[in-house]
Amino acid sequence: MPANALTESLEISPLIRHNWQVSEVNDLFNLPFNDLIFKAQTLHRQYFDPNEVQISSLLSIKTGSCSEDCGYCPQSARYDTGLPSEALMPLDQVLAAANNAKTQGASRFCMGAAWRQPKDRDIEKVADMIAGVKALGLETCVTLGMLTDSQTQRLKQSGLDYYNHNLDTSEQYYSEIITTRTYQDRLDTLARVRDAGINVCCGGIVGMGESHDDRAKLLAQLANLPKHPESVPINMLVQVEGTPLMGTEPLDAFTFVRTIAVARVMMPASRVRLSAGRKAMSDEMQALCFLAGANSIFYGEKLLTTENPMTNEDWSLFNKLGLHPGGSSNL
Ligand code: SAM
Ligand code: DTB
Ligand code: SF4
Questions:
Q1: CA 25, CA 35: separation in Å to the nearest integer?
Q2: Is the dihedral of CA 269, 271, 277, 282 positive or negative?
Q3: pLDDT at residue 54 above 60?
Q4: How confident is the model at residue 9 (pLDDT cuts 50, 70, 90)?
Q5: Which end of the chain has fewer CB atoms within 10 angstroms, the N or the C?
């Protein structure tokens, strides 16, 4: 069944709610750890094979020199992070990387560009990449910044399965992190993506110095969207030298695991993605995240510009935990 149809058939369940109050979300966060994990794992088993993890690989198709000021991001032109900029990658290189990701076992290929928003001529090039990656038998995902209606339609037409666009944090904390575009801009792009019939991949980053309340508000925003995002990436901030968020007090591991568990409880039919930050996590912490309901990862030795665990480390962890890859709608 295509991912859209699957989510639609599940949307009628009373467990799929869009009316979360922040106080209820805080109550979930404040449950005893064992009670929260049990609740999350119980719901996880109602919607998914508990031992299956969907794996996506990332490629930065246009790197650095970004006009935005996202305080976490090594690709902003405003911060000296020593990252070399690269223009839009040629099609053959993108397809070679996608083919390699497929050989390594990924089911989805996600292409990211350091743009505030793409130009129409960029969209044409990215559309060719999407069509080429899809022809390899992979699901496709792109993250390109803000989009217009005609751009979302063009991307859908080229065979795009998912669009990643994160809310990043609560509306209240957002202006501490980004000043060059608004929370509403992000919500507008998400609505355009949804209206074009593209699956939504939308989540956030924790460990940016936000409060408990900000994390609860982020999850309430995500779950109260008109439809739950099919994919919900929960990123742990990767601190990069030169960015304003370098030196932020690291988030406690249990709070991170609780964030995964609360996302699972609130969006039980969505893929909750254990995203950036895995390189710094122990096997035990990642195992707790899977127990809390994470059931997808970014796989491959690089995220967009920063490091991710080695592929052999991930297979070794999967073997230790008895996890298996799966969950793609077109494989
Ligand atoms: N430029 C586009 C945009 O911002 O929408 C697409 C690429 S952007 C790098 C994709 C997402 O990566 C961001 O929204 C953010 O959530 C995440 N991200 C970027 N830098 C990160 C970091 N240092 N740690 C964790 N997540 C990060
Ligand atoms: C998402 O939520 N996390 C990924 C993906 N979507 C595009 C990106 C993480 C980027 C981490 C910093 C970097 O490698 O540049
Ligand atoms: Fe640019 Fe995206 Fe990085 Fe923000 S997150 S600086 S928009 S690449």
A1: 14
A2: positive
A3: yes
A4: low
A5: N
**Does residue 110 carry a catalytic annotation?**
yes
- CA–CA distance, 190 with 220 (Å, rounded to integer): 16
Three-state SS for 106? Answer: coil
Confirm whether pTM is higher than 0.85: yes
pLDDT digit string, tens, across residues 61-111? 999 999 999 999 999 999 989 999 999 999 999 999 999 999 998 999 999
How far apart are the C-alpha atoms of 160 and 119, rounded to whole Å? 17
Query: Which pLDDT score, from 0 to 100, does residue 13 have?
Result: 76
Averaged pLDDT of the chain:
94
| Cα angle: 256, vertex 260, 266; to 5 degrees | 140
* Integer Cα distance of 126 and 113 in angstroms: 10
Query: Does ligand 2 have an atom closer than 6 angstroms to the CB of 3?
Result: no
Q: Where are the alpha helices (DSSP H) in the chain?
A: 3-10, 22-29, 33-47, 91-104, 120-135, 149-157, 171-177, 183-195, 212-223, 253-266, 283-291, 311-321
Q: Among all ligands shown, which has an atom nearest to the Cα of 165?
A: 1
Rounded to the nearest whole angstrom, what is the distance from the C-alpha of residue 168 to the centroid of ligand 2?
11
Amino acid sitting at position 54: Q
**Annotated catalytic, 201?**
yes
CA distance 109 to 138: 7
21-36 in b/e burial notation, b at 16+ Cβ within 10 A? eeeebbebbebeeeeb
Whether 57 lines ligand 2, by a CB cut-off of 6 Å, is: no
Q: How far apart are CA 298 and CA 296, in angstroms?
A: 7
Confidence at residue 5, expressed as pLDDT on a 0 to 100 scale: 52
Closest alpha carbon to 218 in 178, 185, 266: 266
Query: Residue 22 pLDDT more than 90?
Result: yes
Q: What is the mean pLDDT of residues 124-128?
A: 97
Residue 249 clears pLDDT 90, i.e. is over it: yes
108, 110, 258, 271: which one is catalytic?
A: 110
